[in-house]
């Protein structure tokens, strides 16, 4: 059962990212503020939800949130600043998009950098505990999936429509066969050592 967080009844934003462990595509973050009255029985940690349930939830969350922001940080920037910094940057940029300024921020995971002097708390597995983080998780995942499905049309050989850029056996085999695309993260170990690739 997911709970509202309610830090001293402050206006709270939840934020989360998707795609951190992928070999290709952006890391995508969402931030949002839900109204106190928000309830949805379907909503849970987006990793526990089926694709269909996430797609049903996305428009409901977007229409009921007081405000939300979703941001992609692309491979070129990930390669420059590393994936952890890129994930935090994506969350900061998503928070910047909120038209209502939060008084408190709750973040999924254990790493974050202060944003605009607003107090925050990192919550391990927060997307399975608190509604605003779970809702942000659904938005990040669905927006990123849609992007990966779009770039799949350009490079169908990697099957991003199915693997979404994650390091599946099929994705790695396609990298061996076709090399890398402009959407791959060059700073990531794209293949295990014994299958090293000339970049």
TrEMBL record:
Residues 10-199 form the RNase H type-2 domain. It catalyses: Endonucleolytic cleavage to 5'-phosphomonoester. A divalent metal cation binds at residues 16-17, 108. InterPro entries: RNase_HII (IPR022898), RNase_HII/HIII (IPR001352), RNase_HII/HIII_dom (IPR024567), RNaseH-like_sf (IPR012337), RNaseH_sf (IPR036397). Its cofactor is Mn(2+); Mg(2+). Keywords: Cytoplasm, Endonuclease, Hydrolase, Manganese, Metal-binding, Nuclease. It comes from the Bacteria. It is found in: Cytoplasm. Its main location: cytoplasm. The keyword Cytoplasm applies. Manganese or magnesium. Binds 1 divalent metal ion per monomer in the absence of substrate. May bind a second metal ion after substrate binding. It is an enzyme of class 3 (hydrolase). Its EC number is 3.1.26.4. The keyword Hydrolase applies. One of its GO terms (molecular function) is RNA-DNA hybrid ribonuclease activity. Belongs to the RNase HII family. Endonuclease that specifically degrades the RNA of RNA-DNA hybrids. This is Ribonuclease HII. The gene is rnhB.
